[in-house]
Amino acid sequence: MNTALLGDLERINEHHFVEKVQLMKALQKKYGDSAIEIAMNTLAENVREEWQTIGELHGKNDIEELVHVIWEHFGKSGGFEFQVEHQEEGVQIYCTKCPLADMARMIGEPEWGYRFYCATDPIMVEAFNPNIGLRRTKTLMEGHEHCNHFYYYKKPE
Hints:
The protein is of the alpha+beta class. It has one domain: Muramoyl-pentapeptide Carboxypeptidase, domain 2, CATH 3.30.1380. It is about 60% helix and about 15% strand. It has a four-stranded antiparallel β-sheet with strand order 1-2-4-3. A hairpin with a 2-residue loop joins strand 1 (about 80-85) and strand 2. The chain is globular, with a radius of gyration of 16 Å.
């Protein structure tokens, strides 16, 4: 992708993020934490619907396809840097560069970045395929040295 276009997209994304943060802070100030809860629940439902559709469109929707869609497709084109480890129990991703975390920290709003981007990851995975789980104990957005996304198949109950 052309570097001028990437720069424009980064600026648009940054502007959009700042607008969302300002809106959320205004709602919180006027209506309290319940407004934030409503907004985050709405965001979660939107993510769920979007990723159910993506899962249906891909049909195969196994872990390999999920990793391909998130990391190989969106991740590489979006400027993420990561390593993929195939393990017996699932697939481990170590993300060492996240433009979203960089942007949120630069603006001084990593907590909102976590809410908007990272907190919905488990919802996204379950919507893509309810039999896949996500375990993550570190995120760049929270100041760790990497994100450690581990995708696995849930055990039948």
